[in-house]
Design a protein that fits this description.
8 strands; 3 helices; alpha+beta; globular; single chain
Length: 132
């Protein structure tokens, strides 16, 4: 890609997402296939690739209202059949993450993709620019 194409891409797609095994410091961003999610833990890493900080305003809805398709900061969307039924039942935030975040239960869309909606509670979500 040329520099102009790269800049245009990053303007349209300023966030990068990666999913890593919580227990492996040198883990690669890989797809995990496992129908027994009981002991699996992952870190979701979100990077801001734009030229400045990105600020998403806090929800104007009640703090008690759960994240939903109309009340979220980040939507994680999985292709059809990528999350097993067992994974859908077990997926949750860590206890530390629950202090500042809420997550919806898996939501199946019309196209059979599955969405998880994440909402930063009580404050704006500020994603600082990725360091050079």
């Amino acid at each position: 890609m040329t520099d102009n194409t790269n800049q245009e891409f990053f303007l349209q797609n300023p966030l990068s997402f990666a999913l890593y095994n919580f227990y492996e410091r040198d883990d690669y961003n890989l797809l995990y296939i496992n129908d027994n999610p009981d002991e699996l833990r992952f870190n979701l890493e979100i990077k801001n690739l734009s030229i400045g900080a990105i600020t998403l305003s806090k929800s104007t809805q009640s703090e008690l209202e759960a994240p939903s398709p109309s009340n979220y900061h980040i939507e994680l969307k999985f292709r059809p059949n990528q999350l097993s039924q067992r994974s859908r039942e077990k997926i949750d935030l860590s206890e530390a993450s629950k202090e500042g975040w809420s997550m919806s239960r898996p939501y199946e869309n019309r196209d059979r993709t599955v969405s998880l909606f994440l909402l930063k509670r009580k404050e704006d979500l500020v994603i600082e620019k990725q360091g050079d």
